[in-house]
Design brief:
Largest sheet: 4 strands, antiparallel
Strand content: 35-45%
CATH topology: Bacterial Protein-export protein SecB
Number of strands: 4
CATH class: Alpha Beta
Number of domains: 1
Number of helices: 2
Structural class: alpha+beta
Order of helices and strands: EEEEHH
Shape: globular
Radius of gyration: 20 Å
CATH architecture: Roll
Strand order of the largest sheet: 1-4-3-2
CATH superfamily: SecB-like
């Protein structure tokens, strides 16, 4: 009688995949005294690299504006290669959508803070977060789309 192989979830590599900083209205933007509006957009995606290895990328885009003038635009894509083996298929998606992004977020959070500071601005410090809510939202949206397709709604 053989035992089933133990599940494996391991970080193989964490790296900064892409980083972009733009300060299009420098140096005049540094003379502004108004408080900018800051827009934060966070997303993640995953793909299989080889059997049992997955790349997950968390992308954060920060845009700061005063009225219609852009103060700065920062985009950072923090990535990781994760080994996932001997895990039931239904558990792989939550690992890729929740556990892996949760692992990467502190790295991209630090990068955003450091880069905005080096660009000459007050550091943008993102609040700690978890990707569980984002993942659940994505699952609900997919379920709603599938239900709509199965309800017999046919194009004309």
């Amino acid at each position: 009688m053989s035992e089933s192989p133990q599940p494996v979830f391991a970080i193989e590599k964490i790296y900064l995949k892409d980083l972009s900083v733009e300060v299009p209205n420098a140096p005049e933007v540094f003379l502004e005294r108004e408080v900018p509006t800051v827009d934060v957009n966070i997303s993640s995606n995953a793909r299989s690299v080889q059997d049992g290895l997955f790349e997950v990328v968390v992308t954060v885009t920060i845009t700061a504006k005063i009225k219609d003038k852009t103060m700065f635009l920062v985009e950072a894509a923090q990535a990781g290669v994760f080994q996932i083996r001997n895990v039931p298929q239904q558990d792989i998606e939550p690992l890729l959508g929740i556990a892996c992004p949760n692992t990467l977020f502190p790295y991209v959070r630090e990068t955003i803070s450091a880069v905005t500071s080096r660009a000459g601005f007050t550091p943008v410090v993102l609040a700690p977060m978890t990707f569980e809510g984002i993942y659940q939202q994505q699952v609900q949206q997919m379920q709603a789309q599938q239900a709509q397709q199965q309800s017999g709604v046919k194009p004309n």
